[in-house]
Amino acid sequence: MARGNQRENDREKAQKKLAAQNKGNKESGSSLRAKQEASAAIMREKNRLADEKKANPPPPVAEGAKVAVPPKKADAPKKS
Fold first, then answer.
1. 9 φ, ψ to 5°?
2. Could you say which DSSP state residue 52 is in?
3. Which of 2, 17, 30, 80 is 20 to 30 Å from 47 at the Cα level?
4. pLDDT tier, 22 (very low <50, low <70, confident <90, very high otherwise)
5. Is there a contact between 35 and 27 (Cβ–Cβ < 8 Å)?
């Protein structure tokens, strides 16, 4: 049974797939490192704020105290 041009088509397909894989991240080492440092600084700040929040929790609500509840939205009148 003859394969025709199937082999050539498969080679082209494999080359396109390989080219797509190599097309990824082209950043230089220094710019990548700078981006990582910026991300790390942001995460350190978030962690610091979370630790402060854990260290200073809001005061507990006393028993029997009324808690403000936002009013419910009024439903639109239904058409019959």
1. -65, -40
2. H
3. 30
4. confident
5. yes
pLDDT score of 36 more than 70:
yes
Per-residue HEC secondary structure of 29-79 comes to: HHHHHHHHHHHHHHHHHHHHHHHHHHHCCCCCCCCCCCCCCCCCCCCCCCC
Dihedral of the alpha carbons of 56, 57, 63, 65, in degrees to the nearest 10:
90
Distance CA 34, CA 29 (A): 9
Q: Which amino acid is at 15?
A: Q
State pLDDT tens for residues 38-63. 999 999 999 999 999 999 887 777 77
